[in-house]
Amino acid sequence: MEHLAYGAYGLYLVLILAGGWAAVRCRNLVRALLGLIMTLFGVAGMYFLMAAPFMALMQILIYVGAVSVLIFFAIMLTRAPGGEAGEEGGGPPRPALRTVMTLLSGLLPAAILAAVIWTKTPQALPLKPELPLGRLGQILTGPYVLAFELISVVLLAAMAGAVVLGFERRKGA
Amino acid sequence: MSPLVLFHLAALLLLAFGLYGLTSRRTLIGMLISVELMLNGAGLALVASARLTPASDELGQLGTLLVMGLAAAEATLVLAMVLVAVKRWGTSDSDRLSALRG
């Protein structure tokens, strides 16, 4: 069983790697979005592997179902006049030094954190029993009801803000 | 390697991809995709810590749920902002949106 879990972990890691690479490197934004979706599925698989199926389903529902569709809308609505939708690029190529700096900006914080994880991580416990969904609901509507309400308000404010920003005043009104 | 380290390294990978994309992408939408990658890494690290250490399991999973909700709100707002920027300047290229004039 142990080997099976490591095999599944490897599969999800490959999904995350390939998807992440596509998400940050593809010139075409639609392909980058597909890479992002692949990564999201990989992370969902890791949630399943940790015996947190509710988180995995929420990941698929919220990220793959809602956020990706939003990003797809954004890509399609910001087409340059006369250009292909989602085509990134044009402009002069960036100097080599800038590319190196960009690479460093991603790798350096990750390397520092990796060193911390490597040396300081506490001994992992065996996996806890799966958290029943009812318990999650009780906590969310009991002691943490304020956070629950606040995130609703944040979502409402974001939606209202998006409507206000996207509102077009009619000519002559 | 313990499973905890493995999951945290996967989350770290997402952070590195996100940071690299955020600095190398030219368009605002590409940068939004990179931010989503980083938020996912945060969620993964939270759940891994909650599941595999003595920390409270419920709190870790709830925190990740809230991160997902915030990511959805953030994506909505960024979409609206990018649309406004494109309507006003005709491009979502971050190199050409550098002017700070109203």
Number of domains of chain A: 2
Gyration radius of chain B (Cα, Å) is 17 Å
The topology string of helices and strands of chain A comes to HHHHHH
Main β-sheet of chain A, in a few words? none
Average pLDDT of chain A works out at 86
Under the CATH scheme, which architecture of the largest domain in chain A would be assigned? Up-down Bundle
Q: How is the CATH topology of chain B named?
A: Helix Hairpins
Helical content of chain B (DSSP H or I, runs of 4+): over 70%
Q: Class of the largest domain in chain A, according to the CATH hierarchy? A: Mainly Alpha
CATH topology of the largest domain in chain A: Four Helix Bundle (Hemerythrin (Met), subunit A)
Number of beta strands of chain A: 0
Assembly classification? heterodimer
Order of helices and strands of chain B: HHH
CATH architecture of chain B: Orthogonal Bundle
Question: If you had to describe this structure to a student in words, what would you say it looks like?
Answer:
Chain A is mainly α and 173 residues long. Chain A folds into two domains: 1-83, Four Helix Bundle (Hemerythrin (Met), subunit A); 131-173, no CATH class. Chain A has helices at residues 2-25, 29-49, 53-77, 96-120, 133-141, 145-166. In chain A, helix 1 runs antiparallel to helix 2. The longest helix of chain A has 25 residues, at 53-77. With 102 residues, chain B is an all-alpha fold. Helices cover 78% and strands 0% of the residues of chain B. Chain B has three helices and no strands. The mean pLDDT of chain B is 88. The interface between A and B is large, with 81 and 71 residues.
